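Intended use. Records like the one below are meant for learning the mapping from a protein sequence to its folded structure. Do not use them to infer anything beyond what is encoded.
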Amino acid sequence: MIGWCTRTWRCLEALCSKGSFTEQDPGIAVLWAVLTRRATRWAVGQLRRERVSVLGLARQAQGDWKTVWRAVNPVLEEADADPVRFAGMRHLGG
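Structure written out for the chain above:
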């Protein structure tokens, strides 16, 4: 799961209400994410191309089912809601 070094900044100004804050990089992962954006793309790709299960992905990532599912579910729901994914298709299955 996610592990990276972040910098913690401390404000020495008396008027500063925060006192300290931790650096965030939404390009890597959103706040409180359990997988990076790159890892989530990889996981969704594995589900689509390799037809692995979420549990299988969790084993590969050395995590648990719920952790992987929380990362991939929003991406899958967004793709499911996009009608363009069927553009050019005449029939499903087969």
